[in-house]
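Please check this.
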Amino acid sequence: MAEFIKKKYAIFSNDDLKNFSLDLQRFADPEDEGRTEEPTEKKIRDARQKGQVAKTEELPQALVVILGFSFIFFLGEWIFNELAMMTRFYITNFNSFYISDRTTLNEGFRVILFLTKILSPIFGICVVAGIVGNVVQIGFEFSAHPIKVDFSKIKLSPAEMIKKILISKRVAMNLFKTLFKIAVVGFSSYLIISADFGVVLNSPDISVAAALSKVCFIAYKIIISSAILLMVLALPDYIFQKQEFMESLKMSKQEIKEEFKESQGDPHVRARLREMQRDILTRNMIREVPKADVIVTNPTHFSIALKWDQHVMQAPSVIAKGVDSMALRIKEVARANNIVMIENRPLAQALYKDVEIGQEIPSELFKAVSEVYSILYERGRLGSVV
């Protein structure tokens, strides 16, 4: 190959050809590049709502086979007697039937109802087994999304189709399961038939019904033993399907960031909303300052506006409070409205820390607040004392 390239393109030197390499990563699916992060709970939850779950088909199939054939085995005598009775009825009364469109239709409906009575219990137990086999793996989740056709995801790329059909872990696993099933069924059939080979050889010496019963029992043992062995395959297959499912849901760091923005909101937008909320709260709080009885200050860092309506409130309440620049704003409004300001550092700090806006003062602060209101009373700014 190197000699051919050398002859074809003389611009390459021997050193260039020795260092020639082909990066196979260039042929990787671009959609998988950068998907190194584990899927988030939201990603898994959304996939589940779309019907994308990790499950093995071996478990429900094995349960359907085991329960279905067990039901047939235990009801076999009843089914055989019912079929024999119907066959005997039509054979013995065939000459007495008047063949017409109406009688044929009536007898057809009668046969359908008869077969429904026989087969519906078997179909019912198979449906229940299939549902149970899926529910024990993924729980109960109904989704119509898998039956919807998304034409945007259909890509007519022969290279991608060949890659997905021939070169994938899923194809290799399905091939292994198929070969394993053939080996299991063949090996279990060999062991059972070998053990009952004498019964098969002696079947011509007994009645047809007895021979049929023995052969059916041997077939039943082959089917059930094969199904039980296939259930053993369900565990490693489920582990494989789970790993493939989680691998398919892996996300890039950019996808995680976008998902966080969608679920939590854009940080810039949330910051702006918080700022707007603070502005609204500040405006509403400042409107209440002119209604205050007194402003308790630190004197520079804290300002707390107190209001007491004896007819409505059991104790004074905080109608506005602020620190630093907000404290200065409250003082400005208080001066403009001739509101008394009293300096009490411990009380101001306690009120700012422990009492929310609109909340009445706690009992442990009654004494300190009463002293403030006593000063107001002495200055003639209040009708009575706390």
